Amino acid sequence: MYPEITTPADYLDHYKKSVEDPGAYFAEVARSYIWIKPWHRTLEYDLPQGFIRWFDGGQLNITQNCLDRHALSHPDQPALIWEPNDPSESSRQLTYRELLEAVGRLANGLRQLGVRKGDRVCLYLPMIPEAAIAMLACARLGAIHSVVFAGFSPESLADRINDAGCTVLITADGFSRGDKFIPLKELANQALAVCPQVRHVVVVPRTGPYKPKNAREILWNDLLAGQPTQCEPEPMEAEDPFFILYTSGSTGKPKGVLHTCGGYMVWAGYTLRNVFQTRPGEIFFCTADVGWITGHTYGLYGPLLNRLTTIFFEGVPTWPHSGRLWEIVEKHQANVLYTAPTAIRALEMLGGDIPDQYPMTSLRVLGSVGEPINTEAWHWYYTHVGKGRCPIVDTWWQTETGGILISTLAGVTPSVPAWATLPLPGVQPVLLDDKGHEIPLDAPSSQGYLCIKSPWPGMMRSVFGHHQRFVETYLRRFPGYYFTGDGAIRDSRGNFRIIGRVDDVVNVSGHRIGTGELEDAINQHPTVVESAVVGVPHPIKGEALAAFAICSEPPLDSSALRSELRDLVIQKIGRFAVPDFIYFVPGLPKTRSGKIMRRLLRKILAGDSDLGDTTSLLDPTVLDAIRKIVEQDCKN
Ligand code: PRX
After folding, report:
1. Among 88, 315, 295, 324, which residue's Cα sits nearest to residue 181?
2. Residue 394 CB–ligand 1 contact under 6 Å
3. What is the CATH code for 432-502?
């Protein structure tokens, strides 16, 4: 029997069992999947060493669970509905049988190119069915996919390809998002110029016919031509690497978060089913791009594991008209809509009368992810989109956690606007104070560093190629705990409200941007001596980016320099990381030991006149100078 949670009493019962004996609890969950070989030990771990093993000895292939079993029982059910950027282009649909066959053909093609278990394959693709097919084909072969969001620049792509040692790149000629064309292949070419180990480049002709330009390029259709649809799934150890997904942290270099096969599968399927309370056959619309973890877990693997139909949307919510998202919900009769607060706030700005024109009677559950949702946006979403009848799940999790850790279970546990609420079974969140002491549960209301006490199946296992970095970043700050990097509040009933990052990471429109990474990019400009980047509250994006740069000499033309710096960020990271504000300052507030006090920069930007104790600063007069520059800029 699959452990389903359908009542508040179930939740309490499951939670208790999962904490008392996580191994026994998740063994029961895992048994609902197809395993090639059963595991002999459900859980073994030593958190401070970064040693975590779930379902040890078990063998599986996630694609059997995502595809084969459903293709057998429900071959004609759509597995994936693709909605193109331009609504005048036809949408496409792939049934479970068709998707299995497409995956088989590509897997055979990739095998012919020499791709084997453990090889790394980079995907740099728009939201098209080929992205899903490529991820699943890698999984079929046991190759490790590393999906790089198509908004990343060539330099970011090259860094990720080289860090993971990818030997194959799958990309497309180009695509449009809204009215903007992205020449993806040209961008990929720039990256490939410094990636000599890439042996093959598979190109999907998204915009029209494409002719391979050199010996390492091969057209997607040519690779598939003549390939059999059957491809035996590679037996994977539960703890074999499954995929890598790069994410930004407090240091300059992005980390290749590594997930493994068994635990990730169990967590993706289990969390989706229980949080959204789905039933097989339902239509699930997650608006996230596959380039982010939400697109992996709830855009692809989770829905397929639960025999849902997933909607892949290539475009943006407001193009070519402001009701596009609602139109898609109606057109494909989505039962669940899962999106980000940024999108909700942007749509809210356009007025509730737009979604009011769409009855959206198919909707049953609404989800929010990626950043804190403010109360106003929550109510707007509830009223105008859910028409007051769909529960909202505010789901808190991270790239590192593989799937949702804290969330309301739709219609089962009570939701509270702006609160993620309760932990899922198997998740033991605690709040720690500065000294690393647990803040007791009976404290009336508490705030602290959000940490997790014991491993859950979907937890990351390593930073690819840098295991020590995994240990240092997540497991050493508070030994015995996984440190999330977030701050949170807990009420007396154990509900959690996430406040935001406590490290040098800024969350812009749900995209995680490491300030160190951005500073590294800005510092590469020849006239910039040093810079500091901070996040500032923004009504739509959640947070916006503000950069403070010290130049070797005062810039003659500030706006020209600003645009050069913006271009530099586009080149080094991607357009989504361009700062909203750039200030040229004579100095930065630094402690005597040289640490930049970003907190003070945030206060100046907020117009806060009380900066607190600034005696530890090397040169406190710099604050006045910065304040004047910021005020001057506001006047302009
Ligand atoms: O700060 C938290 C915020 O997003 C961070 C994780 O970002 P990323 O790895 O890109 O994954 C995003 C999608 C899961 C977290 O550390 N965050 C995510 N969900 C929420 C959230 N903050 C508040 N409420 C949420 N529901």
Report:
1. 315
2. yes
3. 2.30.38.10
